[in-house]
Every structure is written in C-alpha cells, then in structure tokens.
C-alpha cells in the first residue's frame, strides 16, 4: 500500500494541532503571563526605536534606517507567532487548518529569512562606514539602502514560497496531526509526513544554507576587514569608538545565527523535537527583545534622542 493511503481515507479538512506546554493550570497561567509580558516588551521596545529614528532627523542615516527596518521586522516576526501561541496555552488542544498552518509557516520563514539578510546588510554598512569613511555617503545612498531592504524581502519571499509550497504537497498521516511545537515551523511539520522526505530535507538544507550560511560568511568577511582597519587606528579612543559601533550588531548576529543553525542545519538524526522547541523560544522572544535593549543601551545617539523625546513631551505639560 502506498504511504499516502491514510490521507485518502480521512474525511473532512486536514488539521494540525500544537502540543501543549503543560496541562497544569497554575503553570499555564504563569507561562501565559510570562510570554505576554515578553511580547509586550518586544512591541514597545521595537516601536520606540522606530519612533525615535523616524522623528529625529539626526538619525536619518543608513545605519539607523536598517535598524528601524530590523525593529519593524521583529514586530511582524513575533506577531506571526505569539498571539496564536498565547491562545493555545489554555484549555485543550485547538486545531489549526492546513491552510492556516501553511500561511504561518510562509510568513515565519519569510520574516526570519529577511532578518538574516538584513543583519548581513548591516554588517556591510558598518564595513563601508569604518573601512571607507570618505566614500560612505557616496556608496550608501538612500536609493541603495531601500534597494537592499526590498531585495532582501523579495529573495526571502521567493525562497519561503518555494519551501512552503513544496512541504504542503506532502501527504500527512491521520486527520488530527500533533505538531510538537508552538508554531508551524518546517522541521516539526516535516516529521509528520508519511512519505519519503529526503528531497524536501535537501531543499530545506539548501534554503538554510542560502539564508544562514552565506549571509554569515559575508558577515565574517565584513568584520574581518573591519578588524584589520580598527587595528590600524592609532588612538585607543578611535579604536574603542569603532568597536562599539560593531559590538551590538555582533551580539545579535551570534545569537540569531547560532540558534537558527542548531534548528535548521543540524542532521535530522541528531535533532530532538523538544530541543528545537526550546531553541525556538530563544529566537522568538530573546533575540527580538535584545535588539532594542542592545542598540539603545550601547548607542549614545539613540539614548540621547529618546531622552530628548521624553523631555520635549513633558515640557508642554509642565508649562
């Protein structure tokens, strides 16, 4: 009998269900409040960066344009996952139609891929600023910055559409399929297929290489050239200033690429579904939350602009 027979025998539309975090009501409440708090902090922190960059002309530079784009991306990225995740914490498992699961996977992969491409673009921006400061304004024009962001989104859309469409041509066993995850991510959905998935796994590795390995190598090359340039700076103050503009970005890069590589580039035989779910919590909550914290706490321009905005808002009230 062919592997897809169980799917043909089922009645009604296909559905997926997410495995619950816990069945203990007290822990459900704690998890709900924790995830809700983190989600609100992500929204407020990234919205604050978008507001401060948009309203302060001194921050209308390529570096802050990319930072603003990254913050907008993080808001969309977490909003694709967290609201549905919160709704599934309480009560029994709630089914999600195959179309809804495919839509979440498509947008999650698209936004996550764009995030990785954008981090590589930000590394290139720092390379031009530090290694070619006299030509920076000529190279990093507004038109080029917009083209880089639009190109990242376009490439991510193309790769995500191909991958999602390929996965949802697979037959899945049973009517109610339980995903051992809190979102319709590629690896846990692939595990539910009742067919040969070697081709699909190969495509996933190819997409993972294009989204993770290639941008990460470009980032490494950029920072290798940046490090060589910084070491040639004679003054200690100049070296420290140049390094401080890169350290925040490097922190986010290592966390984002490290966690995603563990999920998408490890051999399937060495992966654990529970491990993948725990790692996914990091790039769903921790990385989007760290972006505004790292960039505001370590960036004097953003901190000054935020203070100025708060003072200007209070001054009319006090008068």
Automatic annotation (TrEMBL):
The keyword Magnesium does not apply. It is found in: Cell membrane. The chain crosses the membrane at residues 29-52, 64-86, 106-124, 144-168, 205-231, 243-265, 277-297. GO terms for cellular component: plasma membrane. It holds the Pfam family 7tm_4. It comes from the Eukaryota. Keywords: Cell membrane, G-protein coupled receptor, Membrane, Olfaction, Receptor, Sensory transduction, Transducer, Transmembrane, Transmembrane helix. Residues 45-295 form the G-protein coupled receptors family 1 profile domain. GO terms for molecular function: G protein-coupled receptor activity; olfactory receptor activity. It is a multi-pass membrane protein. SUPFAM superfamilies: Family A G protein-coupled receptor-like. Belongs to the G-protein coupled receptor 1 family. This is Olfactory receptor. It comes from Fukomys damarensis.
């Amino acid at each position: 009998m062919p592997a897809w027979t169980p799917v043909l025998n089922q009645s009604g539309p296909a559905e997926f269900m997410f495995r619950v975090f816990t069945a203990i009501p007290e822990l459900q409440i704690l998890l709900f409040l924790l995830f809700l708090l983190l989600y609100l902090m992500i929204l407020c922190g990234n919205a604050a960066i978008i507001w401060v960059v948009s309203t302060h002309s001194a921050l209308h530079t390529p570096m802050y344009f990319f930072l603003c784009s990254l913050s907008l991306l993080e808001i969309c990225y977490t909003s694709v996952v967290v609201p549905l995740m919160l709704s599934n914490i309480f009560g029994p498992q709630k089914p999600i139609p195959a179309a809804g699961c495919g839509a979440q996977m498509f947008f999650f992969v698209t936004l996550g891929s764009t995030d990785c491409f954008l981090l590589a673009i930000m590394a290139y921006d720092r390379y031009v600023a530090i290694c070619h400061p006299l030509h920076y304004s000529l190279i990093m024009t507004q038109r080029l910055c917009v083209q880089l962001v639009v190109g990242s989104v376009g490439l991510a859309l193309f790769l995500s559409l191909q991958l999602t469409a390929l996965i949802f041509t697979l037959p899945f066993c049973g009517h109610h399929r339980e995903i051992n995850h809190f979102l319709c991510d590629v690896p846990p959905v692939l595990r539910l297929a009742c067919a040969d998935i070697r081709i699909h796994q190969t495509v996933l590795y190819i997409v993972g290489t294009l989204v993770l390995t290639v941008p990460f190598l470009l980032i490494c090359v950029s920072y290798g050239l940046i490090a060589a340039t910084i070491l040639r700076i004679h003054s200690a103050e100049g070296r420290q200033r140049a390094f401080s503009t890169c350290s925040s970005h490097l922190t986010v890069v290592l966390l984002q690429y490290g966690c995603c590589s563990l999920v998408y580039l490890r051999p399937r035989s060495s992966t654990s579904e529970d491990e993948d779910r725990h790692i996914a919590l990091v790039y769903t909550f921790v990385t989007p939350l760290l972006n505004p914290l790292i960039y505001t706490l370590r960036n004097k321009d953003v901190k000054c602009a935020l203070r100025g905005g708060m003072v200007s808002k209070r001054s009319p009230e006090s008068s």
